[in-house]
Amino acid sequence: MSVHRLAPGLYRVRLRASPRPDGKRQAISRTVHGTEAEAKRLERQLLTKRDRGQLSGKSGQFEQYTDHWYAESLRRGSPETHQHHAYILDAHITPRLGGYKLVDITPMVVRTFHGDLADAGLSGTTARKVANLLATILDQATTDGLLFRNPCSSLRRRDKPQIDTQEKRALSADEAQALLRHMATTDCGHMTTERRQQVHDATMFMLGTGVRPGEAMALLWQDIDAKAGTCHVYHNLEAARGREPRRKTTKTRRGQRDVPLPPNLISMLKAHKARQSEYKLRLGRWSEVGYVFPSLDPRKNPGGPWTVQAFRLAWRRLIAGSEFAGLTPYVCRHSYATRLRGLIPDEELSRILGQSSSRVLQSTYSHVDPQTMDRVRDIIAAIL
Question: CA of 100: how far to CAs of 66, 97, 155, 248, 276, in Å?
Fold first, then answer.
């Protein structure tokens, strides 16, 4: 019975199960993606189950291989990706497939696994991410010579989770103005005036540039070229659990781009910078990194990075109870793409948005707004 550290943030808990009728006690192994304290907490829970006779030895070869795969994956990728993989393994893959031997995971088992994900209420998009990670792990097992063929490769398209294709909402010009007015005038008792104004300014910036929330939070003042009327988007803000937020380059080369800034947005940024300077002087201490949209919390790290999670929380609180409740900051990006599509070629617009190809734009970031619907009605009415 002990806790073994396999890698940073990865622990294995080992103990003996309750005795079987033949008197033997099978070894139990459980993996913990987290801290040593969490591993020891699991150890205590397993001991309690064993004392009650509720712990049986069902640990399989696949769970052991996922430990090996995860430990190797820590050498590449970002902490945010590691955290995401750890969650999928702990919440979805290991509980359902951990007791299998690798050679016993057949296409039928994988099809049943996909069905279980749907029965559990997971969205198509989430289920596809889980299925993709399972396929990646089994593909590595095939490369390692532990499987003759990846069982996921034999599945037909209809047997795999289907990505949700529901069209997301985009704001019309009037709705965007109404959203900004609401943010500028709403008195939110649990939010300071400075933070409310920064949520407003960040929202206006995203509506006017189409950048992702993480890209907006990673911007430094040196990335703003007011004279040229452009914004240099080269970084994204990453914040994994238990780690300090950090700026990292965008995932793809096309994500590194220059975005045009209209005159009214440049004026807003100048006013925003002036308010930021006043707040910095009033506060007396400031992290001189130069974030455009920094943390304003005087208790922690004023002037430091403002995480996307913190921005989303402030956004939700500010629009709670309004007609915009339930929207996320990504509605700004959807709206930007919808308003510009048709005015400039898709390939050029996808480069401004930092998409890997124009196909993503065509399938995700294009919407038919109410004004277009009205124009279609008028045209058809004239024909009929």
Answer: 12, 6, 19, 38, 57
Domain 173-370 bears CATH identifier 2.60.120.10: no
The count of other CB atoms within 10 Å of the CB of residue 52 is: 9
103 and 147 in contact (C-beta within 8 Å)? yes
CB-neighbour burial class of residue 281 (10 A; exposed 0-12, middle 13-18, buried 19+): exposed
Average pLDDT for residues 71-81, to the nearest whole number?
A: 82
User: Positive or negative CA dihedral for 214, 233, 359, 152?
Assistant: negative
Q: Alpha helices, DSSP H only, in the chain? A: 36-51, 61-73, 79-88, 94-97, 107-119, 124-143, 173-185, 193-209, 213-218, 263-283, 308-319, 330-340, 346-353, 358-364, 370-383
Q: What is the pTM of this model?
A: 0.68
Q: How many residues does the chain have?
A: 384
> The dihedral of CA 166, 338, 311, 82: what is its sign?
positive
pLDDT tens digits, one per residue of 21-63: 445 666 777 777 778 888 888 888 888 877 766 555 544 578 8
Distance CA 326, CA 287 (A): 33
* Confidence (pLDDT) at 285: 86
Q: List the structure tokens of 278.
A: 């006043």
Considering the four listed CATH numbers 3.90.1170.30, 3.40.50.150, 1.10.150.130, 3.20.20.150, the one that applies to the domain covering 2-159 is 1.10.150.130
